[in-house]
């Protein structure tokens, strides 16, 4: 195992340099900074949400809204007045230039929103709506995937009581369109996440209607794969 320590440390140093280079232009969420919950995973609902264990950790979901999959649901255990940092964006594609998605915090004790939500909520629940139509818009680019987005300013939403709660992304006017939504603002990248970065990058680029590939340089991609391989070898090598 000791024989692997030097290459592991050396490759880690290269990896850090490569990541820094990829992040020089970054504004938009990246698989390095946000755990990818789902990329275009289809229909979710009140009874079939994606579970979020830690709402402080930066996480992102990408959704293509359709008639059969109009909303993206996250579920979590809310805490009394604990703020949630949320943000939304849409792929920088001309047909989505005027698209303005919303995200609703659905939780017990909140008021009934006006206008009403386009989906039912449990008895005793209400909602606070993050409406991107009210937010400033900026251009964003993820230097690793090479994707670009129109991003809306982040905001905070707070439950008024503890209990099971939901974040729901949707298009207020209905119809089809793409958006991404984030919760949390603390980057907690794990070495185990290295193994999913490449495949998630391909999925994210497809979501943004880009060709398969990477926004990062080839050597940065090779570094990621190499580091993942070294870590695997260290983990399985005899002591």
From N to C, what is the helix and strand string? HEEEEEEEEEEEEHH
CATH topology: Jelly Rolls
Helix content: 10-25%
The major pleated sheet works out as: 7 strands, mixed
Count of strand segments: 12
Number of DSSP helices? 3
Shape estimate: globular
Mean pLDDT: 84
- Our count of domains comes out at 1
Topology:
Blueprint: H1 5-22, E1 35-39, E2 50-51, E3 59-65, E4 71-78, E5 84-91, E6 102-108, E7 125-131, E8 137-141, E9 148-152, E10 155-157, E11 163-170, E12 177-183, H2 194-207, H3 218-236
Parallel strand pairs: 1-3, 2-4
Antiparallel strand pairs: 3-12, 4-11, 5-9, 5-10, 5-12, 6-7, 6-11, 8-9
How would you concisely characterize the structure shown here?
The protein is of the alpha+beta class and 239 residues long. The chain has helices spanning 5-22, 194-207, 218-236; strands spanning 35-39, 50-51, 59-65, 71-78, 84-91, 102-108, 125-131, 137-141, 148-152, 155-157, 163-170, 177-183. Strands 1, 3, 5, 8, 9, 10 and 12 form a seven-stranded mixed sheet that branches.
